[in-house]
Design goal:
Order of helices and strands: HHHHHHHHHHH
Structural class: mainly alpha
Helix content: over 70%
Largest sheet: none
Radius of gyration: 21 Å
Number of strands: 0
Number of helices: 11
């Protein structure tokens, strides 16, 4: 068996498609797993958001100063501002995202299968299209969550209003701007998250194939399934690479979107004005405010989420499919 064939076989033993999953178990167990990951990593999002909306003369210009200020003012709960809104809305949003992701990936793989392209390229196309489609489908839920949670994250900071919870934010936004106020920055969210999701999943799919290819060149085993530890390491490495790539490309759009979403109607400038303001204050590096936390956030979130996601898929694989795979 040649290297390419062994690579495909090795990866095939770790890749679990949508039709092999117990959907009910997948959704129920997944809600618990992803909620746990969100609890662990949510403070990073709070820090990133506050850095992105900081004024030029603000003392909170570094991640450390933001954390110190939040802990001093509110204690540990300060790092979880807006968490209730996010955890409530994230469950339906993730169901939409993961369903669209997996079904689109399977469809796209079938479409590109007849073409004479390499396995990493095929994976990049299928995963990239799937990631973009999943993001597009889920933004209808994600954007209102973003608007509400981000206002809670920055309330009372740098002149921003204060609120009595997520429902109070939603009520005041609707009273001021109507339902469309909950979708402020929707266009930029599409422009930010859809390419980011496409880049992330394309990078992840490609990096996995490349890593498995490199590993297969250094082993003589044929037909032997990879160990659980090796699978986790490869998937984790793919998550880090994907998060780093996506954060470098999409941070400027995320900074602009965040500023648009947290400003009140009377103070709200256009995206062009925000860009000019950021450049005037800090030069082009102003567009990368909060890049450190975002870089860490996307890498940490991406790696944690993908490891949890792949573990969830292995846990929810239909038994008879496992048996067939083992025989093959």
């Amino acid at each position: 068996m040649d290297v390419a064939s062994r690579q495909r076989q090795s990866f095939g033993q770790t890749d679990i498609n949508w039709d092999k999953l117990d959907k009910t178990k997948f959704y129920v167990v997944g809600a618990g797993i992803f909620s746990g990951v969100t609890v662990a990593l949510y403070p990073i999002s709070v820090v990133k958001t506050r850095m992105q909306v900081a004024s030029h003369d603000s003392v909170e210009r570094t991640a450390f100063s933001v954390i110190k200020s939040l802990l001093k003012a509110d204690g540990v709960p300060g790092l979880y501002r807006g968490f209730g809104t996010v955890i409530t809305g994230a469950i339906p949003a993730r169901i939409i995202f993961l369903t669209a992701l997996e079904t689109t990936k399977v469809t796209t793989l079938k479409i590109v299968e007849p073409f004479d392209i390499s396995e990493p390229t095929r994976a990049a196309i299928a995963n990239g299209v799937a990631g973009m489609m999943a993001s597009l489908c889920s933004q209808a839920v994600f954007v209102p969550i973003d608007v509400v949670s981000q206002r809670l994250m920055v309330q009372g900071y740098a002149g921003h209003a204060t609120y009595n919870g997520g429902l109070d934010v939603a009520r005041k936004v609707i009273k001021s701007d109507g339902i469309k106020g909950l979708y402020r920055g929707f266009g930029l969210s599409i422009m930010t998250y859809s390419p980011s999701s496409a880049v992330w999943w394309a990078s992840y799919g490609t990096s996995q194939r490349v890593i498995w290819s490199l590993l297969q060149r250094n082993t003589e085993s044929e037909g032997k399934p990879p160990s659980e530890g090796k699978i986790v390491l490869v998937q984790g490495a793919g998550g880090v690479f994907a998060g780093a790539t996506a954060s470098c490309i999409t941070t400027p759009l995320d900074t602009i979107k965040t500023r648009l979403q947290v400003m009140s109607q009377e103070r709200r400038p256009t995206a062009r004005v925000i860009v000019k303001s950021l450049i005037a204050e800090d030069g082009w590096t102003g567009l990368y405010r909060g890049f450190g936390p975002r870089f860490f956030s996307m890498s940490a979130w991406g790696t944690s989420m993908i490891l949890a996601y792949e573990y969830l898929k292995r846990m929810c694989t239909v038994n008879d499919i496992n048996s067939i795979s083992a025989i093959n």
